[in-house]
From TrEMBL:
It is an enzyme of class 1 (oxidoreductase). This is NAD-dependent succinate-semialdehyde dehydrogenase. GO terms for molecular function: oxidoreductase activity. NCBIfam families: SSADH. It comes from Vibrio zhugei.
Amino acid sequence: MNNIKNTSLLRATCSANDDAIAILNPANGDVLTHIPLISVSDIHKYIERSVLAQKQWQSTTAAERSVILQRWYELMLENSDDLARIMTLEQGKPLAEAKGEVMYGASFVQWFAEEGKRTYGDTIPSPSSSKRLATIKQPVGVAAAITPWNFPIAMITRKAAPALAAGCSFIVKPANQTPLSAYATAELAYQAGLPRDLLIVINHHSSVVIGDVLCEHPDIKKLSFTGSTGVGSQLLKQCASTLKRTSMELGGNAPFIVFDDANIDDAVKGAIASKFRNAGQTCVCANRFYIHDAIYDTFVEKFTQAVSELRIGNGLEPGVSIGPLIDERAKHDVLSYIDNAVSQGATIHYGGDSLDGLFVTPTVLTQVSQEMDIVQTELFGPIAPLIRFYDDEELLTHANDTIYGLASYFYTQSIHRALQIAEKLEFGMVGINEGLISNEVAPFGGVKHSGFGREGAKQGIDEYMNIKYLCFGGY
Ligand code: NAP
């Protein structure tokens, strides 16, 4: 049964009309429901309400804010089956993965419920005997976020939880393809006791229009964006007009490296998890595989066997491990990347088929070389290009030869090599003998064109706070 309206979490739906968008199920094209869109003047009204709410909220104690966040976390867990189902229906990822994302998303709420109580300032030894120096941290004010469709809950809570814990109010524009998860998650925050004006979800026909307002409005003090590098770069320019604080979580091109001394079975397991989660549509997905010549053939054989065991289908069906791509454009792009790689000399070792609807078989490409376009492209789909390498120096040059710098992975059993390679990879995150690295306690973020700012961890809340320096004179 695919009727999405049978969950009480979906209060923000409506019937079809000119001021609504249809939300589609990518697994079969069904219209799940409609979401009301708001006008530009409504966005401005919401911002005014958010400003007022924030002034009150910042005067509550961190402990009071923590109680509400903790309750929100508990409600997310209690409603995790409903949230996961909504996510699978609108986004397509298998139900078990959706449940995993709900838990991952909730973990940020719990983490920042605690971290909000630890936003310490400093006392600073004074260079002058007549002065005493200290710092305090204060919320930036109204924070706004624009988030993508690939993690429709976690990309919101990873920003909303630290913002709210810090004493900010929060306005989010989720992707127009996956707003239901956002509205459902916000509904639980309200049920937890959060005033509605502190967490506002907005959707409009045009993301460009929302972007203009959020970037250029003087009362919004912070913009946190997760999405593509091109859009992030555009939003940054727009934020310059109001000198807004910004965090940019952008695209990636993760190398996945298997050295000749690696445990190959572990590497295959990590490669499958890193590459094919969410049908390859994650910013930290392994994007290109560098396999040492000495173990290349063994790795290809074992990896291909594991890929052939992945089951494609509607994410609601038990046992499915790969769902549909998000839309026609995504499918077209994935197929054209494969065609292009083949035209440049790559071989389709496994898969490469376009199936009905938005499904593409997981694909293994061999005979891939560093010069091919596929090595420089963020694939965002279930394609694994395998490149043979011979020595560590050449490997490092190739692995770092990208504008991106988000995640990277390598497998080795040598501690010496692990330290050396980890230090030399130009990426914000490195998985060593591990294909899944994200969690709420570690700082998530990139360098180079993958953006700046860190989410999660003790650093995540600093993105929503200003440091104020206090100088006590006349001592
Ligand atoms: P996208 O096209 O940049 O869209 C992301 C969000 O930005 C959506 O809400 C979209 O709204 C909105 N948007 C698009 N154009 C805009 C504009 N001109 N002004 C204001 N808002 C605009 O990215 P995507 O294709 O959805 O997501 C995939 C990208 O996100 C990949 O590059 C991936 O690597 C990156 N990503 C990064 C991270 C990270 O943590 N670093 C995490 C997840 C994803 P509409 O949906 O309404 O168009």
